[in-house]
Each structure stands twice: as structure tokens, then as C-alpha cells.
Amino acid sequence: MGHSDFTATGLRRLREVLTRHVDSGKIPGIVALVSRGGRTHVEAIGTMRHDGGAPMRRDTIFRMASTSKPITIAAAMVLLDECRVRLDDPVETWLPELADRRVLKRIDGPLDETVPARRPIIVRDVLASTFGLGMDMTALGTPILNAIFERGSRPTCRWRCPSRTNGCVAWASCR
Q: β-strand 102-104 against 52-55: which pairing, if any?
């Protein structure tokens, strides 16, 4: 086998790791695809439902959500592999709107009390999903989340999410 081929040991290890996830009971089944050097390997383990059901197959159809981060991470990994970017490169090179960021002094502080960010966002932060963009749903009732919700940004869900009522954050159904 050449350097671009899979090894029997590597494929066995992959199957063992995936099987452990299914055996844990957290997920009923999994389909994983790995590709390298023009060769593709697929593992289908478990079933479609926790109570059994049809076995997972190579062509099982899944509902997918929140895929922009893993797709971005996969693209960044290709660029890293090709040495086009480095882990410690600031992302502002490609996203200049992220240069010279300011952050709140305190999560519960007024929106005009900001300080310069300690450092720029780097590729490593994007790959680890620790780049500091998003909503902290534990900070309900804070000026920052109130401003976000007032502008119409809310989680798209069937669960309950915060809405403003008489100046307070209350729980209401998202629609």
C-alpha cells in the first residue's frame, strides 16, 4: 500500500471508535465516509432508531442542520494541508471586517462599554469553534442579548426561547 492508501489497522481502529459511540447508547447508528488519495471507505454501524429499526446503510438519508461550521472547518483543513494557511494566521486577512474588534467589558454591561479584543481571531480559533461569535443563551436579560432579540435574531427552534415583555425577558414559543 502507498502512503495514500488506508491501512487495515487504521480501518479497524476507525470501526472500533465508531462502534463505541453506537454502543454507548447516545446515538442509534452512524454512517461515516473517509476518502484519501482517490480511495473511499464507508462504515455503516447500528440502526436508524434507538429502539432498533432499519440498519444504517451507505445510502441512509439524514436530516442535517448547523453544517456551515463543519464545512468551513473541512475547507480550512484542506488549506492547512496545502500549506496555504497556518494555524496562527489571523483571519482578518480574509475577513477584514473582523479586524480591530471590540468586546464588552462585562457580559451584563452596557453596549457602549467595550475594550479592544486581546488578540485577533486566528485560524486555530475557527477550527476549534472558539472564535467568540454567537449567542450566549446563559446571558438572558443582558443588554447584548436584548439588543440581538430586538433586531429579530432568535434561535430557530420548536423549543422555547426568550422574548421581551414589559422590558423583561420572558419565555415564549419561537415560530
A: unpaired
Nearest one of 79, 85, 74 to 35, comparing CA atoms:
74
Amino acid at 85: V
Spatial neighbors of 78 by CB under 8 A, at least 6 apart, are: none
Burial class (CB in 10 A: 0-12, 13-18, 19+), 145: buried
DSSP, residue by residue, 113-169: -EEE-SS--BHHHHHTT-SS-S--GGGTTSHHHHHHHHTT-----SSEEEEEETTEE
pTM of the model: 0.52
- At 172, the pLDDT band (50, 70, 90 cuts) reads very low
Interatomic CA distance for residues 117 and 126, integer angstroms: 16
Residue carrying C-alpha cell 476549534: 128
CA distance 148 to 161: 13
Cα distance between residue 15 and residue 44, in whole Å = 9
C-beta separation of 81 from 110 below 8 A: no
pLDDT tens-place string over residues 82-131: 999 999 999 999 999 999 999 889 888 899 999 999 999 999 988 887 87
